[in-house]
Structures are given as C-alpha cells and as structure tokens.
Write a structure and sequence with these properties.
With 241 residues, the chain is α+β, with helices and mostly antiparallel strands. It has 8 helices and 9 strands.
C-alpha cells in the first residue's frame, strides 16, 4: 500500500495535464488502492499499477516493466481512427508484424480477437472519467488493436468490401519476415549523410550510432531520421544525444 500511495501521490503532485483530462484522480485511488491491498504477487501488483496509470489515457505514462499479460504501450504498430461509423486503419509501422500479416491502411477493423472492436475498446475505457473525452476514446481504440505483449492478435477487417481474418504473431513478425535494422546510414546527394535510428530501447544502439558517426564524419551535413522510432530508455537516449 505504501508503494501504491507513492505512485498515486507522485502523479497527483507532478502530472501536468489534469486540466486537460477527464480523469478523477481521487476516484482512481478509491478504485485501485483496495486492489493493490489484495495483490498476492509482484505480477498482480504490477497489473494494478498499470491499470492505475491507464486511467490517464496518456501514451507517455507507463511502467518501465511488463509481463506477457501487460497491454502494449500505444500507439504500437497499428494506428486507427473512428470515421464514418467504423474504425479504420490510418497508419502502420514499417516492417512491423502487423504490416507483414497483411494489415493495410484503409481497412476497416471489425473485430479484435473475436470481439467486436467497439466492445474491445469499451473494455479498455478508464473507469474514473468524470465526463466524456474523445481523447480517451481514441486511446482505447489504439490500445485494443495494440493487444498484449505476449499474445498474438487476430483481426477481422473489411478490405475492399471483403472480410478477411489476419493473424499478427506476438513475436514481432512471421517466420522469414523482414525486420528493419535499428541503425542505418547512407550518403545522400551533395555530401549529406543520412542516419536513421529506429529505437532507443537497446543499449547496443549506442555503439552502433558511434560507428555510424565515424562513417559519416566527412559529410558536410547530417540528417538524423527518428520517424517511427518507438522510444525506449534514457540509458540509451542520453549517450546517443
């Protein structure tokens, strides 16, 4: 309970966006503190803390740990929006498991793991909202299609008028699928160097970036591309910077 109160109190004192959120943070304490008291393992307690932070429906608020049952941070690899009475794919991470499984921009997502998308999103809706907030609705849709860390996802989509069932494996890609290198370099026109950093989640990236900078040291300018970078840890980011 002291650990729960420490987390809850830290957010109460330091979170900068309560004026924009519909979250009743006092209500969050009433809901989740009793669940923290009943947690019988570290894993169960972690899930209580995850659910507590999910009440903020903020992609930047998460624990720096997870289990297979933990929901993935959002946005993950599939970007969706509600349009014209349906939920449609509006973007994909390049080379992601979802892209390799056949998910495409423009498809309508009908079901996730056999559950209608509206119902799947409703199950992810924060419990402490004092009012409706379109940002919360968008967050729960992204969370529903992101799924859990250790589990495959099954999408039913409508693609050009036809229903299709797509299986997205949990391991990041199907056998033989292409995975993108996290650090890539090339020489552009006019002596400009190009450096792409695809993640800040692996400490080996620091050495790879050092190597890349050595290769590009004679270029007259450098373009650093962090598009589609899924983020990571300051342990990696600070040395890279």
């Amino acid at each position: 309970l002291r650990d729960f109160d420490e987390l809850w109190g830290f957010v109460e004192r330091r979170y900068a966006f309560f004026d924009e959120k519909a979250t009743d943070w006092q209500r969050v304490r009433e809901i989740y503190r009793p669940l923290a008291a009943k947690a019988q393992s570290n894993e169960a307690f972690m899930h209580v803390l995850e659910a507590t932070l999910d009440e903020l429906y903020d992609p930047h608020c998460m624990l720096n740990a997870n289990t297979d049952d933990s929901w993935r941070p959002v946005p993950h690899d599939v970007f969706v929006e509600e349009r014209q009475g349906g939920v449609f794919v509006t973007g994909l991470r390049q080379y992601s498991a979802a892209e390799q499984a056949g998910v495409r921009v423009g498809q309508e997502v009908v079901e996730v793991d056999g559950i209608p998308i509206d119902e799947a999103a409703r199950k992810r809706m924060p419990k402490s909202l004092a009012r409706d907030d379109p940002a919360a609705r968008q967050w729960v849709l992204l969370s529903a299609v992101a799924g859990r860390h250790g589990y495959a996802r099954r999408f039913q989509v409508v693609d050009r008028g036809e229903h299709r069932d797509l299986l997205v494996p949990a391991n990041g890609g199907r056998a033989g699928g292409r995975s993108e290198e996290m650090v890539r370099t090339r020489l552009l026109e006019d002596g400009i160097g190009y450096l792409r950093i695809g993640s800040f989640a692996d400490e080996t990236i620091v050495e790879q970036v050092d190597q890349a900078l050595q290769e590009l040291r004679s270029t007259r300018a450098l373009l650093i591309d962090v598009r589609s970078n899924a983020g990571g840890d300051t342990v990696v980011t600070r040395p890279v910077m």
